[in-house]
Amino acid sequence: xxxxxxxxxxxxxxxxxxxxxxxxxxxxxxxxxxxxxxxxxxxxxxxxxxxxxxxxxxxxxxxxxxxxxxxxxxxxxxxxxxxxxxxxxxxxxxxxxxxxxxxxxxxxxxxxxxxxxxxxxxxxxxxxxxxxxxxxxxxxxxxxxx
Length: 146
Fold this sequence. Notes:
With 146 residues, the chain is an all-alpha fold. The protein contains six helices and no strands. The longest helix has 26 residues.
């Protein structure tokens, strides 16, 4: 829920239950929980502060999870770029002339772009596509599957 939806819900509950305040509903803490989740998602994803503040609590947590998966994929791919042994054993992973590697690089860029947009479903989809493309590129380069 967005902060505005939380305020509307709180007001409706107060009217429905004829309460004098929202303390008994737990709605007073909801905006703080939502803001904390958005802050953690921003921190995990490395995006600008307040760019995810409009996300609901669930979306902020999902964005944070996608960002963690994205970082794992980035480090997995980066190993092929910086490790001399892996560069020697699997040169296709660094060569964009190979179609699978080029597709993986395009998927990686789309994931980076989706992260900066702050749209959780698009980001999750882009990270999943990056993961699939990385797996396909590894298979095409002859990397043994784990």
